Amino acid sequence: MQPTPRTRRTPQNTQYTYALGRRIHHVKTYPVQSPQGATILLYGHENGVTVTWRGGRRLKPQTQAQNKTKDKSNGSTSDAIMIIDSDEEDASPAFVDKPEFEDSSTSTATSPLPEIIQTLDLALGTAALKIAILPMPNSTSAEAAWHGADILKRKIVFAVTCATNEVYLVTLPLTPPSNESKARPELRQSLLAANAGRGVWGETLTLLGGQSRPCEGIAITLVKPTAATRSRSVDPTTTQQLTRQSTRVIVAAHSREASGTLRFWNVPLDAKPGAVNRVEAFQTEYLPSPLSSISFNPTKLTQLLAVISTQAVRIYDYSTPALPMEDASEGPFPTQGSWLLSLYPPFTRGASMSTTRKPIVAAQWVSHGRAVLTLLADGQWGIWDIEGASPTAAGTSSGSLFSKASAGLRGSAITNFSVAGHLEGTSPLKNPGNQKSPAATGASGEFVPMTPHTRRDALALANAGPEKLVSVRGGITVTRLSPPKGTVTGDETAILWLGGSDPLVSVIPNVAKFWDSQLRKAAGGGNLWSGTQLTRMVRLTDLAAGLLGERCTGAAAIPKPATTANTSTGENGTPPVEASFPVEILIQGESRVVFVHESEEATSFTSRLLGGRKKAGDHTDLESTKAILAYPRPEKPNSVAFNLSIAHRPAAENAALLRSTRRPIGGGLFSQDQPRGDNPLPSTEAPVGSRSQGVGLRFINDLNFAADQPDDEQEAINRNIEEEMMDIMEIDRELEQMERERSTKRVFFEEG
Length: 752
What we know:
This is Nucleoporin NUP37. It comes from Triangularia verruculosa. The protein has 15 helices and 35 strands. By secondary structure, it is α+β, with helices and mostly antiparallel strands. The protein has a five-stranded antiparallel sheet with strand order 1-2-35-34-33. It is globular. Mean pLDDT is 74; it is low at 69-78, 84-92, 226-244, 429-449, 452-456, 564-578, 601-633 and 661-694.
């Protein structure tokens, strides 16, 4: 990444753009921080994977580190990394990297953006297409023993798929390499000396074989063998060896071989740097159609969420044999797993009855593996409640499909969403004939404010057929925050995005609170604007300013420190009006990444939506609403005439026109004789002698003047959005009544 980003401010947020100078295929945020407090970012490009350490304590300058190293003895430190070169057996001793850091972390008081501490390129010799990390909550290196895997306190563990069919499992030290390590003379002897797999950075590389085509998706999780799993091993000695071995990782990847193939590898993490090991798949599942994405359950480590875009979302368990009595596996896992559950999306909307279901863009586990959040191609989102994770079913086990009573569940299906809605900008226009009550459908059914821009997007997606919806690209990123002290599970933040030149990116700051808020609205509790920002889905706007014309190809989240993620309570112990996002949003472009921060100068999302909160002690009356009304007010005429002609009119015709209209209109909208009020626009009169030249372009000066005028903040503060929404809903009811009566009825829309 370049050291200094380009900054762009919008009314809602501030965007920091890093130009990477290479095509980006995938970006991931590693869930474990480095020992010095840096956030680790992984992104794949055309030559491999780049690891970036961002924030935390800075590396000391090379001269200071060298002087301090000379004064010390040859003892090892906690951050020391021994790098062994296995190709040189009789050469000089192994290089020991001892990175040293400053005592204080990088200050964000002057700059809200953390610095890039160090970067490291892991060259694979081919393009890295997809990166997979463990589905663990975010934590520090000292607290990273997820499911007893102590290696996570020292190593970065991730998997990557390449354009040349290879799949690798990579481990790398959590501590960033020092500048001395990157400046070693032996690395300059050959262009391939620093390639991944040689061990020069302390990394290990394991090749996962068996596939003949590039894998289009990958996921990893830890092995958690159970008694039933160990009992399937034919040789007891083999079972004991597996139990004594170090931490192992299960890697799953899918490709388009045949009609679709899903493979699983069991990979140990005890490989030595400098040697590339090879592991074969222990389970291969041939599918009737290719998958679009996969992800492991963060709690039930053996369950895999497989998304078939044109059909359904299915749950697969690789440790449960499909035919228990006929399984002849000699390893710790069966040769074939089981498909447990299918989750079907609703049907597409059309003029006639449609038998095609909406294409699924993405699906991810939420509620710590007890529910599934999905995003459909038309912008609809929904939550399938699998194990009674709904806030209304808390503490009950009746809604759990994987409880002890249904341990033998096979091939079941779910179609109804617990809650559902549309991303802002994709909501179809209200059609009472096609919408049911929230109680009957389980959907939120809330009224979404429409603007000319969002109305255009809604019409485009609502009228799109299945053949157009299949081409929509998007995704869901779920970030599991570190649990507070004294609790077992933490909050979850979800990012839903639909790509394109004008991307739609929405953030759910707290999935549990958002789910509870949607259920309350569906049951009739609370109004449209109740709650804080944490209970809403917030759309990020003006993202094209940071992407500079590039398409949005992904989104990631970086957890904020606990001190800046939440706001303190208000006076007298009252809850805060709103809390900022607990994560920092990262938007992925084709060759650049954009970090999106909430604007420091702009008010909160709630305040902007409701027109701003009144200042303390300010009790002035609100101005009249500017909404479109279904019926004209008595004191105003029923129609308004506008003259948009640029031709010059005689004075007599202008006088007659002024008497016949409500507001004075001159010879033309941009003519010389247009009367001017208290705030006249600059004159557009042409110089004497050139009256006939450029008559049709006189309005340019007026447009430039209007574009330079600042926004009326007082008008925005006094605006009553709720009343305007009620007026629009009144128009919808009137149009519905007209359609039922099938009679001619005139409705006048007056100007506000």
